[in-house]
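pipeline/complex-builder :: batch 7 item 3
reading input block
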Amino acid sequence: MSTAALLVIGNEILSGKVRDTNSAYLSVELRKLGVDLERILTIPDVIEIIANEARAMSESYDFVFTSGGIGPTHDDLTMDGIAMAFDLDIVLNQSMVDRMARHSKAPINDAMKKMALIPEGAEVLDVGGLWFPVVVVSNVHIFPGIPELFEKKFDSIRDRFSGVPFQLRKIYVRENESDIAETLNTLLKEFSELMLGSYPRINEKDYRVLLTLESRDPEYLARATDTLISRLPRDAIHKIE
Amino acid sequence: MSTAALLVIGNEILSGKVRDTNSAYLSVELRKLGVDLERILTIPDVIEIIANEARAMSESYDFVFTSGGIGPTHDDLTMDGIAMAFDLDIVLNQSMVDRMARHSKAPINDAMKKMALIPEGAEVLDVGGLWFPVVVVSNVHIFPGIPELFEKKFDSIRDRFSGVPFQLRKIYVRENESDIAETLNTLLKEFSELMLGSYPRINEKDYRVLLTLESRDPEYLARATDTLISRLPRDAIHKIE
C-alpha cells in the first residue's frame, strides 16, 4: 500500500484570490491508482515553511507532491524551499536552459533562467510535449500551480505511482442520516475493514444521504454491500451504483 | 493583525469522493474581514490526528476553524478529537438535546444524541435559524462539513472575527511573466511591505498574467500601483481594477 501527501504552496490560495483545484484533481487520480492520499496542506510562500513541511512529509509518506511556486517571479520559492529541506545547493540545470532556448522565440533572460535553478542532484523527468520537466528530489515531485500544467504533467508520469485500487459502491438513501446511523455502526462491527462513508445532502430532492462502501477486496465489498442493502428498508434506497 | 488556520477533517475529501469548497469560501471571507488565513490542512477521520493538529493550530493561530466530522455516524470524530486535544471529557449538552427535540418531528434517538456530545465546558453559540449551534473550545470553532451549513454558520458569527482589511488592486498584463519579472522584483525592493502576486494564465485570450497588489494602507498601495503602472509598457496593460 502506497501513501501520499500534497503540499500546496501559495499566498494566492490562502488569501482567496485563486481557487485551488489541484488538490481535488490529485485526490481523484491517486484514488484511481490505488495510492492513499493522507494529507493536503496549504502554506504561504515562505522558504522555511516550505522546507520544514516538505521534509516532514518526505519522511512520513511514500510520495510527496508540491503544487505552485516554480515560476520566474519573486514569490516563486518552492525550489529554494525543497533545496533547504534536503540541505542541497541550488544549481543551474543546463539541459533545462537548452530546452527553453529551443522552445522560446525570445532570448533566454534572467527570469527564465531562474526557472532552471533547481536543487543539485535532482531527477529531471521529461514530460513529452511540455518544455518544462518535472523535477524530483528524493520522493518529492515538484509540480506547477497552473491547473492545466499540473494535470498534464501528472498525467505524463502517472505510471510511477500505483497500488491496489479501491473498489467503490454507492448507495443513495432517502432516510435521515440519524435514522440509519445504528445500522451503519452494526455493519462496521461485522465488516471492520470496510471503508464506509456517510454523506448527508441538503439540496438533493431524491435522496438525503450518500453512502460509500470501499474495499480493495471485491468479494469482501460485495458481501458488505449485500448485507447493508438487506438491512435497509426497501423503499429507503433511491439508487445503487 | 489576526491570524487563522483551517482544519478540514474527512476521508471523503482525501479520497476524492467529495470536493472541499469550504476552504475556498473561508479564505475569501476571512480576507474580507482582514484576518490572515495562514494554513489549511486536510486530514483523515482519526481521533489522534485531529487532536494533535487542532492543538498545534490552537497554539499558533488566533482563530482555528474545523470543517466536518460532527454528524451522527461512526466516522464523525471531530468532537472526540477536540476533546482529546484539550484534555476534556465528552458530555451530553442538554440544551442541544432540547433544541433538537423542538426542531425534530421524530423522537430523539441515540444517533441524534451523539451530535449533542461535546467537550465539557465548550462555548455553545446560537446561530439564529439553525437548530445546531457552533461549538467553540478555546479558540477552535467547530463547523459542519456540509457547505450550505458551513457558510450559514460562519456568516452568523462572522462579527467575532475581524482585523484591518487588505485593499486590493489588480492589473491584467499582456506580457509573459518572465518578461516583467525584473520590473516586479525592482518594485518589491522599493515597496518591501507590498503584497505582490503574479499569476500566469494559459487559457485567457486578453492577458497572460494577473498581478495583484495588496496592502492594509490605501495610500501606500496607491503609490505602489502608480509606480508599477508607470514602468510597464503602455500597451502591456489590458485592464486595471
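note: The radius of gyration of chain B is 22 Å.
queue -> next item
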